[in-house]
Amino acid sequence: MLVQGLKLSLVSLLLACCLGLTQSGQAQSQPISGEIMDDLCAKDKTHEGMMDQMKSMGRDPAVCTKKCVELGAHYVLYDHNKDVVYKIDNPEKAEPFAGKQVRITGSVQKNKIKIDTIEASGK
User: N or C: which end of the chain has fewer CB within 10 A?
Assistant: First the structure.
């Protein structure tokens, strides 16, 4: 009887540990603020270099971001405060906010974010 109870307790403990490991691997939704940029400009943390090279696009970060994406770059969120670049899992939600400061709520895993909601932050 004691052995059977011990086995049951051990199985329960193992299941709880496995569930905990599985749940800790899941991304949790959280708010993040930053600028929707392209990954080329985000490497330099600014659009200035690209806009200097490609004068035809003018000085608008939105135009710069969209042009770079047309040329093969990808949309990212650059958090200026933390100096972190997040790849965007669903870029179609970011496109309308190209070159703008935003507040995103989404699931983050490592440096990749899946956008749940996005809004201009007015900065």
Answer: N
